[in-house]
Amino acid sequence: MQKQFLAAIYLWSLSLAFGCSDPSSRGASREHYLSFENVSDTKAFFTKDADWSPMVSAHRGGSYPGYPENAIETFEYVLQHTPALIECDISMTKDSVLVMMHDNTVDRTTSGTGKVGDLTYGTLKTFYLEDASGNTTEFKVPTLREVLEWAKGKAVLTLDIKSNVPYEMVLEAIEATTSEAHVVLITYSLAAAKKLYSMDSELMLSVTLRNEAEWDRFLATGIPKENVLAFTGVSERNSKFNEKLHEQGVCTILGTLGNLDQSAAARGDHLYSEFVKNGADILATDRPIEAAKIIRE
């Protein structure tokens, strides 16, 4: 049975047993949800084994026409089409509210202007999100807590914590919303990975592991392998290196966002299947719906 549907079947059985209504306000299919009771379930799911089936991670939530990046409505739109990890970005306002925003300014992605860190949340709430073509939508910038609450029972979030955001505040929000089983924290250095692990040894981490030297340095940190998804970069890794990680039960994330997505759009979406055949378990992509369709075939 395909591994990504096990959690969905679990959620379906709960809703039958307890009469729960569909938690999606926009009709995403239950079979596209990822729902876990605890972090142990999440770690078991993301262990590379014979039951693993490839999946996608929607970069910045998966922007599409009419659906801006880092918007809950966009996350739901993607889940109407495919199970997915939802990669999204945490920034902080002037009054220390954690919000979902990639850039240092709001100029590119909203109807407003200014640096996120110079704006209060009250001001940010007056802006509307814009899609990649600059079209203004009816959607607003969500807070981290709103996204964490939304994700429970639906998706696993891979959270990109921007440099102006204290780790303590992110962990407090995760604990307050009891969403530990639905988050993976992105790190860009082993020092960051070690710090987060020291602060909460249960949470899953995305760690950049692109070659054997980086793998050996990771092993020296003492972070358990079951805590980790291996981000192998934005260019293809040697298949033997992917196999080495697989032998340890570690799932790999290949960043197709950027050049590899552009190549697939130009040369044919069949390239996504080739990335998977080469050992990529999860494709972190700006084209999650297109990529998922191909790798499920």
Automatic annotation (TrEMBL):
PANTHER family on file: GLYCEROPHOSPHODIESTER PHOSPHODIESTERASE 1
Domain GP-PDE as annotated: residue spans: 54-295
Organism domain of life: Bacteria
Name listed for the protein in its UniProt record: Glycerophosphoryl diester phosphodiesterase
Organism (species): Echinicola rosea
